[in-house]
Amino acid sequence: MSSTNHVLLSPAELAYLHASLSLTPPIRPDGRAPTQFRPLVAETGILPGTNGSARICFADGTEAIVGVKAEVERTVVGPEGEGVIVEGGEGEVEEGGGEGEAGWVEMTVEIPGVRDDDSGTAFLAAMLSEGLLADEGFVRRLWINRRFHWKLYLDIILISPPLSYPLPLLSLTTHLALLSTRLPRLKSEGDEDPFFDDDWAAAPYLFPRPNGKSTTFVSQTRPPITLLVMAVGNNIIFDPSKEELAVADVALAVSVTAGSSSSQAPSKHVPMDTSTEGRNLRLLSIRTIDPPSRLTPPGVANAANSAYGANAGQKTTHEAQATAEGEAVEGVWRAPRGGAKRMVLGALVQKVLERGGVVDEVLDALEGVDLG
Amino acid sequence: MDRRRINGPAGATQPPVFDDVVSQGAKTVSGRSRMPDASRKMYLKTGVTPSASGSAYLEMETSAKPGASGLKLSCSVHGPRALPRSAPFSPHIVLSTHIKYAPFATKQRRGYLRDPSERDLGIHLEAALRGAIIADRWPKSGVDIIISIVEGDQDRETSKSQGEEAWDMMNALAGCITVAAAALADAGIDCVDTVAGGVAALVQDGGADSTPTIVVDPIPSDHAKILAACCIAYLPTRDEVTNLWFRGDLPASDMDLYTHLVEKGILASRNANCVLTNCLMETIE
Amino acid sequence: MTTTAPTLAIPGQLLGPATRYQPGPGTHLHEAQLYSSLLGQVHTTAAARAPGPVKRLTKITPAPVPAELPTISVMPSSSAMASGGFQGDEGEGRSGGAKKREVLPEVGNVVLARVVRITPRQAVVVICVCGDTVLEAEWQGVIRVQDVRATEKDRVKVYESFRPGDIVRAEVISLGDQANYYLSTARNELGVVSAMSEAGNTMTPVSWKEFRDPETGVTELRKVAKPQ
């Protein structure tokens, strides 16, 4: 399991890290601001054999590649679907998009050094696809006609060993790959066997660009992004590194997407100070990540440590065990017990969804990536 | 493919689906017969598996409709026991969780090997329990928590089950958390509190324009559309959440809606916790 | 002192403030309050009792605090009934189909172990009894050559101290590495308590380092535990 693999930090180091992250403002080991992401290098369209691809390399050396392949698949018509055809002849949905099924998207995550059937990768894949599928409009876009649909395979491969919990990296790479995904233009009509345009240049993007006519009523949602947020004390820290995650009180993975503000009724359109119009963020999924801090070794206070001359004698072991159940001693690391307070969880989610907050920053940065 | 067992036929067949006699044609939503804040009735018993260190069995009341089945879960806890020799030193108890649907638990037959969704549930359960147990009481040892879902929570009457699997998973997880907490207490593994799971959902019963309402312990087939749902593992004495799983589609501008959903999830979890504490008190009396 | 504490507890139940009780087995401390962490019966014991390697259920053993507070503990119902306090014998625990709760060897405990393998550097043993409790699981331990006896450690030879099959009384000195507990017999009352001769007879101890076969009269070398 990638989130709980052993962190080689001593109890003293953990206590130091926890203390410095609990300060206001927190001091992170790499000097970042609490909401600052690690620098990354991103490029798209790197794999000519795919419908869309992307690569992101974090500064710490972790690197991921995502390839999106689309195949035409025959839609398995359920019994009630046939009933509709037999009875009426004309379906009730004709406006270019029937219902989509979750099975039309298949996502696999591969992490080197981790077994294929590892639960951790299943969890990662489920988390990433959950955000994607929560957006109902997305699967509907894979609909070709009543008999056929696109089947989308998203293969996420982490090239480097997982130096930190790879969730944000994989999510951002998937986001870019989906943005650059194009499906061939359909030339056939109605329910006949699909027939596509050979001209790749004419192929439309799966997620249409807002350039030019930005006031269309097509809901221009973007693929979701999943952010990793953690809390230490009252501090909220984004994109934690492996070491920071090792002292987290609670860690959450939050998937959000941004619909363009034009598609929704402008109820609360707060003008931003910059040119970026307020994005219409939507919350898609939240999962608690089991923080590896619960598996860290506890420290021993000096008062209980016979090496420091305290309680030398036969009672030493009993003393030490009693203090293990005693009150927390300043500067002595103890693995956290129990869960997270409601208020902390609420604050974490609120911070993610903040207007003009981190999500906007990340999306702005991702928009800057050339999707050529 | 697991060759050690007798597997089902290689070619998948369409399961027989019988025409709904009651509701010919249009899909009727029977609607919810409970109050929005009421959970289904639950039966919980510990000590059902003599060979395990601890065990528990949970059954959800079948919904008002005849023919609709309730959730049936059986959990056994093995350990604490010595770790395998290859395992590295651990100052804490090593928790491993297995959740498996019985092959006949759902409409679609499940195989013997755990599929990704079952593994995913296992990780959720692990996160929920890890916050509850006091892991440093049992160094160098491991405990296995094995849950088999004997019967899934599915409506057999309606032929359509589009997109309901995801919500069913949440209901199953909530039950798994509760039953595992009972089995852990039965096994005598130190816990800071009794953790119980609860689900709340934002549903839209009328048309697309109706106001969504928040209900506790939803049955997907009772509602026309589920907009969002969350499953929460909650420690009542400490007032802490060990696992939060939310999915759906909510506007970010409306934090209140999300907060209410979580509050209702906690309420559902408290309801389940009442059953759990009563069951545990019965066990020791 | 038992006026406020409940008699039965479930995990997470409040037992009382930490200023009134000391945390015993089956309890935990959270924000200066003591809570139960197990399902079972609540016991309070006056602090006067000598802390020793009694049958322990968790890591926590009573520690003498100046204020001499009573210790509050929670015992799982089945083993609490069977053992009647702390000093029950293990035969009772098994009776009546009552399930026994697994316990772990812990630093300071005196355990009984069976020697399974010897090498020039160490003897590998399997811990069978911890304190007064027969363990369900088999925990492996190691007695290193330097831990066999307290004096003349450099002259100790493992094959002159233990043989496979011997039953050894030893003290746990460390949780050790991933596989083994580290045990020591470096005390008079620790060492081999029961041994078979090469002829297959049960031997009797005749000195601090010899066992004798009563039938053949042959003596064999062991690190003999002082009979109690």
UniProtKB/TrEMBL annotation, chain A:
InterPro entries: Exosome_comp_Rrp42_subfam (IPR050590), PNPase/RNase_PH_dom_sf (IPR027408), Ribosomal_Su5_D2-typ_SF (IPR020568). Its main location: cytoplasm. One of its GO terms (cellular component) is nucleolus. Keywords: Cytoplasm, Exosome, Ribonucleoprotein, Ribosomal protein. GO terms for biological process: exonucleolytic trimming to generate mature 3'-end of 5.8S rRNA from tricistronic rRNA transcript (SSU-rRNA, 5.8S rRNA, LSU-rRNA); nuclear mRNA surveillance; nuclear polyadenylation-dependent rRNA catabolic process; rRNA catabolic process; TRAMP-dependent tRNA surveillance pathway; U1 snRNA 3'-end processing; U4 snRNA 3'-end processing; U5 snRNA 3'-end processing. It is found in: Cytoplasm; Nucleus, Nucleolus. Transmembrane segments: none annotated. SUPFAM superfamilies: Ribosomal protein S5 domain 2-like. It comes from the Eukaryota. GO terms for molecular function: mRNA 3'-UTR AU-rich region binding. PANTHER family: EXOSOME COMPLEX COMPONENT RRP42 (PTHR11097:SF8), EXOSOME COMPLEX EXONUCLEASE RIBOSOMAL RNA PROCESSING PROTEIN (PTHR11097). Belongs to the RNase PH family. This is Ribosomal RNA-processing protein 42. It comes from Staphylotrichum tortipilum.
TrEMBL record, chain B:
One of its GO terms (cellular component) is cytoplasmic exosome (RNase complex). Its main location: cytoplasm. The keyword Transmembrane does not apply. GO terms for molecular function: RNA binding. Residues 39-189 form the Exoribonuclease phosphorolytic domain. It comes from the Eukaryota. Coiled coil: none annotated. This is 3' exoribonuclease family, domain 1-domain-containing protein. It comes from Staphylotrichum tortipilum.
UniProtKB/TrEMBL annotation, chain C:
The keyword Amino-acid biosynthesis does not apply. Keywords: Cytoplasm, Exosome. GO terms for biological process: RNA processing. GO terms for cellular component: cytoplasm; nuclear exosome (RNase complex); nucleolus. Residues 1-26, 78-100 are annotated as: Disordered. CDD domains: S1_CSL4 (cd05791). GO terms for molecular function: RNA binding. Residues 106-186 form the S1 motif domain. This is Exosome 3. It comes from Staphylotrichum tortipilum.
